[in-house]
Amino acid sequence: MSVLKREVLIPEAAILKRVREIADQISNDYQGTEPILVGILKGSIIFMADLMRAIRIPVQMDFIRAASYGSGTQSSGTVRVTKDIELPIQGRPVILIEDIVDSGLTLAYVKELLEERGAASLKICALIDKSERRERDILVDYCGFQVQEGFLVGYGLDCNEEFRNLPEICVLKE
Ligand code: IMP
Ligand code: MG
What we know:
The protein has 174 residues and is α/β, with parallel strands linked by helices. It has 3 helices and 9 strands; from the N terminus they run E-H-E-H-E-E-E-H-E-E-E-E. It has helices at 12-29, 45-54, 105-116, and strands spanning 5-10, 36-41, 60-69, 75-83, 93-101, 121-130, 142-147, 152-153, 169-173. The chain has a 6-stranded mixed sheet with strand order 4-3-2-5-6-7, with helices on both faces. It has a 3-stranded antiparallel sheet with strand order 1-9-8. The longest helix is centred in the first third of the chain and has 18 residues, at 12-29. The chain is globular.
């Protein structure tokens, strides 16, 4: 059990409102197609589940597990894929779903990997775009919230596997 203090940064209602707005945008942009949503495990699953159910066109889902973080709050700087996608993406529109973009290393790596496999198009949808430690130029096509700094937990985001089930997004306090 963690004794870390936290403060609510984005309340549940604000998250759900923004998720519905992004889902409307995706439904409009991809009308007449059936994109594959590829969630980056594990942090994206709560966001992905809410987003998918608010999208009004047919979509398919798959997951990839890639991480540039060891444990705690510091990036290890290397990206590993420990679970690959299972659907063929050749010729398909793909939307990568990420919880939070920090250094950008994870997304840059996964994006390149899926582009090499011939996706028809590849866009990025991230709940949070955190600019503090950006190392790679990443264009986030659909962004929920922009945050300057801090370590965030809740709504899928963890600190050493804790707090993923919080319905709101909190910032950890020193
Ligand atoms: P990046 O490769 O540095 O962009 O790291 C992205 C991944 O690091 C995210 O998918 C998260 O799993 C994790 N991460 C980065 N910042 C935070 C944070 O503030 N809270 C929780 N996880 C984070
Ligand atoms: Mg993640």
